[in-house]
Amino acid sequence: MTGETDSDAPVMRGNRRALCHIDEVGEAGKGFTLRRIFKDKPDAVMPVFLIPDGADIHCYMNMCPHQGITLEMKPDTFLDVERELIQCSTHGAKFRKNDGYCTKGPCVGRSLTKLPVMIDDDGMVLFGA
User: Fold this and answer.
1) Can you give the pTM of this predicted structure?
2) Dist CA 119 CA 110 (whole Å)
3) In 1-129, where do the E strands start and end?
4) Residue of 46, 4, 3 lying closest to 21 (CA atoms)
5) Which of 54, 77, 84, 91 could form a disulfide with 28 if both were Cys (CB 3.0 to 4.6 A apart)?
6) Does the pLDDT at position 1 exceed 70?
7) Contact in structure between 100 and 111 (CB atoms under 8 Å)
8) Pair 103, 10: CB distance under 8 Å
């Protein structure tokens, strides 16, 4: 189950958007295109992705700070071969999982935009603060 479909309103739990169950996030991550994010801009979309990190999960905008392009190498594949760092498929920039800080590539010293998520008691990953 994902919290996004083209025809339905987002699945909400309180004031947070349900993205998916934690079991649906593979070891290389899971990407989403969030729709209906802004009430005044109903056609705007926000590409995001989830990255597992031990018992934690992190959410980032799916946009490289170098050129504003999406990161994944193929659907739901955001990590390098070693599964240690997030990697931009275009220029090979590498980012830490826990804070999105770039450690290698053309955007060293910059960071991915981290977004708030939490896991509820049922294992659903919820987007928002």
Assistant:
1) 0.89
2) 27
3) 12-13, 16-21, 30-35, 45-53, 56-61, 86-87, 94-95, 102-104, 114-115, 117-119, 124-127
4) 3
5) 77
6) no
7) yes
8) no
125, amino acid identity = V
Contact 12, 125 (CB under 8 A): no
73: how many CB neighbours lie within 10 A of its CB?
A: 15
Summarize pLDDT for 56-113 with one digit per residue, the tens: 999 999 999 998 899 998 999 999 999 999 999 999 999 999 999 999 999 999 999 9
Tokens of 22: 């934690």
Tokens matching residue 46:
């926000």
Whole-angstrom distance between the N-terminal and C-terminal Cα of the chain? Answer: 21
CATH 2.40.320.10 fits 12-127, yes or no: no
